[in-house]
Amino acid sequence: xxxxxxxxxxxxxxxxxxxxxxxxLLEEAQKSFDYLEQKGLPTRKNERYKYTNLGFLKDVDFExxxxxGVGQYHNPSSNTIQFTNGSIGIHLTDSNxxxxxxxxxxxxxxxxxxxxxxxxxxxxxxxxxxLEALNSLQFEDGVFVHISxxxxxxxxxxxxxxxxxxxxxxxxxxxxxxxxxxANTSLDLLxxxxxxxxxxxxxxxxxxxxxxxxxxxxxxxxxxxxxxxFFNLRIKLNRDSYLHNQTLALGxxxxxxNVEVDICGENAELDLLGAYVIEGDQHSDHHTTINHHKGxxxxxxxYKGLLxxxxxxxxxxxxxxxxxxxxxxxxxxxxxxxxxxKAEVNTKPELEVFADDVKAAHGATVGQLDPxxxxxxxxxxxxxxxxxxxxxxxxxxxxxxxxxxREYQNLLLDAATKKLENFNLEEI
Amino acid sequence: MLEIxxxxxxxxxxxxxxxxxxxxxxxxxxxxxxxxxxGKSTLSKVxxxxxxxxxxxxxxxxxxxxxxxxxxxxxxxxRAKEGIFLAFQYPVEVPGVSNRTFLRTSFxxxxxxxxxxxxxxxxxxxxxxKKIEIVExxxxxxxxxxxxxxxxxxxxxxEILQMAVLSPRVAFLDETDSGLDIDALRIVANGVNKLKxxxxxxxxxxxxxxxxxxxxxxxxxVLADGKIIETGDKNLAHKLEEKGYDWLVH
Lengths: 428, 250
Known about the structure:
The complex is a heterodimer. Chain A is α/β, with parallel strands linked by helices. Chain A has helices at 6-19, 23-39, 111-123, 130-138, 371-378, 384-397, 406-421, and strands spanning 60-61, 79-84, 87-91, 98-102, 143-147, 153-162, 170-173, 176-181, 186-196, 199-209, 214-221, 228-237, 242-249, 254-263, 269-278, 283-292, 298-307, 312-321, 329-338, 344-353, 359-367.
């Protein structure tokens, strides 16, 4: 299925060349184009897309990506990078040990930075994930963030995209970001998405954590209910490093998050969390992969889902433990609370364990509200709908409450609470 | 204040209450005792409005603003708003919901229904500080999720704390003494005695006489095979302690 014409592709390539994008990025895009032209988009027959139909993409106008943006957003208490329909605004309030470069300005970067970026780029260039390949073709711009200072930094990435409201058509918004954290650096990062109108967004985020580096990253996806949201996250952890990554998926009619974490050094630690709160006809798909290439590392995965109406969720958690990755301690949990009979969850663990001295636990549940809990609250004068929201909120809050940065944690909690407040509970 | 008339209740299609009658007036303390399986817990759950119980006939009339209304036609949260309270025998855990938030939401729901304005978090915290003294509870329990990881005694004290916060007009205490050691029993009983007044009524569902040494009943009823077969004063409880239930039931 040809979703991207050769002509569109050549137009984009020309624009990138004129802007001064590096040659190796253009070459990768060409490879992605060839790959997609050959393979097409995945259908239900492809195991990784069994439950998620990408048919929507035929309505995306891949060339229509610029509409006058929404107002400038700047979080005064944090370093902020705003992405609005492909244009980027950088506001650094504290630039100690943090430098941000736009990919479209590559030709003006210092040589050292160009070299560092080339190394990063080459680490993430092989992919058979079609949505990532699409991003390679489409992304309008992106940033390369280099963290090198001793003090802990914070960064707020705000994506505000807009499209029009024409039925059966989507405006494209596509960004590619890289983060390189030097040894023993520390960063709190919140990446937030909101949209107006019908937008198809497809973003990638590639990060490398140096020895002993610590990254706390949260992705707050609160797009409107007519949009399509795709995100490809790939992070590599070197020895002694720590990653807390959580996804809070609230919006989009159809969303898919591909998350891949490579544990490349010993004594690394990963907390991979997610929460999806969906209603109506929403479909939220989370495919995660944790690769333990080296041993003596810990991964804890915890995804929770809260579903109302006839919404659908997909969770696929792959854990690979290499033969040499002895003493790996890995655990995976996916718990779902379903408020209606029509809501549906497809949850599947995939464990590939080749080492013999490891712990690899996994579990999944899909359940409804406990009627005894509900009655307990009702017997204390709390009406059924409110009691349902209290219990549901208590259930899902566990995830955002674990985010280590207090300011960002509050933003996450408020967003989750607001989404839940608006749930229609008439049918319960 | 509360009149239970010829109440018949089925559980899983089996009759458990077979025509129970009971009248409770303000200021009274009633004890309901009886052998296992007699329907004691069923009675309190039906009064609270638990959905698993099927009332086949009878009425429960409750004085609301000087009019006797049929309690059985009201939703559980409406009954609670009108001052009905049940201290559960096995209080359930509610993960993710803090005790403090639960108590405040509950309190405000009742207070709003009765026409007063709701309290803010700070205002309610002031009230809560005094109430936890009634059950000698450590304030750290307030920020924990409701009943999660609480011992049996702590759960029962949490029930009495709720009673203290919500000031019900009729409180059913379902085997509140079961599983408690002497100290916990003393604290729970003290709490109940402090909350007792001439405007409210308390119905103690209990298997053992022991609790009645601490909370003195005005009436003792024996519930057997779905009906109240005998009513007396606190001496009846002593007799039951000595002789068991057999002599009455046959």
